[in-house]
Specification:
Belongs to the DprA/Smf family. This protein has 362 residues and is α/β, with parallel strands linked by helices. It has 15 helices and twelve strands. Helix content is 41%, strand content 14%. The termini are far apart.
Length: 362
């Protein structure tokens, strides 16, 4: 076996957590030494249970490691260890850096600014549009966008970065060959082609609740700044913020209305000193020497629109607005408004976020 295969054996062992892998590495000095050691000597590592030792014994069956490692290439999966030059430098200084990273696509560039865009799974339409818009502009400016590919804000952030024709990276709480959640499968494929999908968990590892808090340290570790778009008072996103604070990252938040449960988390971290953001420039100004200046385009040029189209377009923003409210504000009948909305959608000036709710299209 090669040195890389010994590392793969250690990192890919299912159901063996980070602390136990670190204990094995510390006790035996190298993955190769651990692999070749007599199995009875593992009992000296107090953190390991009898079940753990049995798993290790099975994992060392003759030929299975080489065969499993060879299959990575067939699945388009790459593997780097903490000793490799390609390993992300930003991860080396975090608490409990992953011993190895599995990835599809590519890794974040070493000298590039990366911003994590995170938030609630069960978010509002406004939150989705805000995450897309910010991520799009960050990507256009040359920043990489990092998130966890979860439903809600995470997925919208990846979509926005792809719309901005930039790189986006998804850090998973499962193996990189497992798409979770399954409804994000098309997004999963696009991210693999326009960025990278990363995990410290070996192939075929299924998502587990306890994986996600751990993967959050990687999201924050890879990032230079963390933007929270929407978050409840006790949100998993705030775990990422805590990791970010420990790692010395810049923390940003979108302010929300007092009393809005989806904004409680953001408003609380703003009280604690996070930077308030109302547009992407609030983030980019902190990286002005590295990121490109972007031109604001919250709205498209309306010179080619008809008179009623201009009136209706002026009523809309990134905050979803109901058909009845638009009709009242534009002083149009529902029938006349429906025709105008159809034309604006056809011309890609607006879109529906859900039935009868409209926003400007970014």
């Amino acid at each position: 076996m090669t040195e890389k295969e010994y590392w793969y054996w250690l990192c890919a062992m299912l159901e063996l957590g980070q602390k136990k892998k670190e204990a094995i590495l510390s006790f035996f000095s190298s993955p190769e030494a651990a692999f070749k050691e007599k199995i009875e000597n593992y009992s000296s590592i107090l953190i390991l249970t009898e079940k753990d030792i049995e798993r290790i014994k099975i994992s060392r069956m003759n030929g299975c490691v080489e065969e499993s490692y060879a299959k990575l290439a067939d699945k388009g999966i790459y593997f780097v260890t903490i000793e490799d030059g390609e390993y992300p430098e930003k991860l080396k200084n975090i608490y409990e850096p992953p011993l190895g990273i599995f990835y599809k696509g590519k890794l974040p560039e070493k000298d590039r600014i990366n911003i994590a865009v995170i938030g609630a799974r069960n978010c509002s339409d406004y939150g989705l549009e805000t995450a897309r818009s910010f991520a799009k502009e960050l990507a256009r400016a040359g920043a990489g966008v990092i998130s966890g590919m979860a439903a809600g804000i995470d997925g919208a952030a990846h979509e926005g970065a792809l719309m901005g024709e930039g790189d986006t990276f998804a850090v998973l709480g499962c193996g990189v060959d497992v798409c979770y959640p399954v409804e994000n499968f098309n997004l999963y494929l696009k991210i693999g082609n326009g960025g990278g999908i990363l995990s410290e968990y070996g192939p075929m590892t299924q998502p587990r609740a306890y994986h996600f808090p751990m993967r959050n340290r990687i999201i924050s570790g890879l990032s230079d700044g963390i933007l929270v778009v929407e978050a409840r008072e006790k949100s998993g996103s705030l775990i990422t913020v805590d990791y970010g604070l420990e790692q010395g990252k810049n923390i940003y938040a979108i302010p929300g209305r007092p009393g809005d449960v989806l904004s409680d988390g953001c408003n609380n971290i703003l009280k604690m000193g996070a930077k308030l953001c109302t547009n992407p420039e609030d983030i980019l100004e902190d990286y002005i020497q590295i990121c490109k200046k972007i031109t604001k385009d919250d709205k498209k040029n309306d010179k080619l629109l008809e008179a009623n189209e201009k009136i209706v377009y002026a009523c809309l923003s990134r905050i979803p607005k109901h058909l009845n409210d638009i009709a009242k504000e534009a002083d149009l009948s529902i029938g006349a408004l429906a025709s105008v909305l159809f034309q604006l959608e056809y011309k890609n000036y607006i879109k529906q976020t859900r039935a009868n709710y409209y926003v400007t299209d970014i």
